[in-house]
TrEMBL record:
Name of the protein this chain belongs to: Amidohydrolase-like protein
UniProt keyword terms in alphabetical order: Hydrolase
A GO MF label: hydrolase activity, acting on carbon-nitrogen (but not peptide) bonds
Organism, as annotated: Winogradskyella psychrotolerans RS-3
Domain of life: Bacteria
Length: 88
């Protein structure tokens, strides 16, 4: 008489990806930024931290350890949505 014992894996690893909190600044340099419908800044810098715009302009002070992205000759669209409640 023969007997076999089979063991199955009962551990299922989680693959939730890499979770990293980035608290550094991100600077988009050499960008064409439309500040308003009538004002356009060429070769300007957009500085972002924690998903919020910190500074916009041609002479922005860029802190140390900032991730710099050069947008020379590249299209860039920054979309700002302003949600307001409906007027009754």
């Amino acid at each position: 008489m023969c007997s076999f014992s089979l063991f199955a894996q009962d551990y299922f690893p989680s693959n939730s990806g890499v979770i990293a909190n980035n608290s550094n600044y991100t600077a988009f340099t050499n960008a064409t930024i439309h500040v308003s419908p009538t004002e356009v800044l060429n070769n300007a810098t957009l500085l972002i931290k924690d998903g919020k715009v910190v500074s916009v302009g041609k002479s922005v002070n860029i802190p140390k350890n900032t991730t710099k992205i050069d947008l020379s000759g590249k299209p860039f669209t920054h979309l700002l949505l302003i949600c307001t409640p409906p007027l009754v």
